[in-house]
Amino acid sequence: MRHGRRGLLAVLAVAASAGGGARAQTAAGRRSEPDLWFDPTQLPSFTGTVERYLPNPRGEVDGLIFKEGPQVVFPPDVADAVRRDAPTGKSVIIWGIRARRAPVITMLAFAPSSDATPVVVDRFYWRLGGRVPQEGSAALRLSGTVKQPYYTPQGEVAGAILEDGGVVLVPAAAIEASQELLRPGQALAAAGPGREGPDGRALLAEQLGSALDALRPLAGPSR
Description:
Elements: H1 2-17, E1 24-26, E2 31-32, E3 45-55, E4 61-66, E5 71-73, H2 79-85, E6 91-98, E7 104-111, E8 119-120, E9 138-151, E10 157-162, E11 167-169, H3 172-178, E12 187-197, E13 200-204, E14 207-209, E15 216-217
Parallel strand pairs: 1-8, 5-7, 11-13
Antiparallel strand pairs: 1-2, 3-4, 3-6, 4-5, 6-7, 7-8, 9-10, 9-12, 10-11, 12-13, 12-14, 14-15
């Protein structure tokens, strides 16, 4: 993925030097000058309807699911701005980069419609910053049916999203051994530290199984 990142930065550099870029604003609301930034509408665009927002084990929101299927990831500090423009059930346009191997999009800009001013995300969210719970996180237990895998921005499986919106992240060292439990339609139960909030519950699994009475510790470090 290192070469892909350099390629993306090259595209942004060309866009920034092109001049006459579209007026854009950052997620913090500061309007940027056209000659100092790039036209986000030159990037690939993806339109979908927000089905739900995704929490992480730190209690933040750093992703969403389109009703059409794909996941979108973004920095937690822009979550409120994304929500204002794209509440659950509403359509949104995302400009960004789609992973090669999975339906997950890294957001670089967004807008509620094609005639709205795009809002630019201030930084690239290449890593799952909320994957590791904060100290003092609650001990949670989740169970349900897997709706779809939870992907990293690079398209790697990092856990599962349950039908009720619960998020189960799995330590990288245990992903390979856990693949069967993370498939869509699979019954999944998990226990580990995490947070519960208005958008649901999310945890970093220390135990996994097909049911709460069949949980087993994961191999390898949990953090």
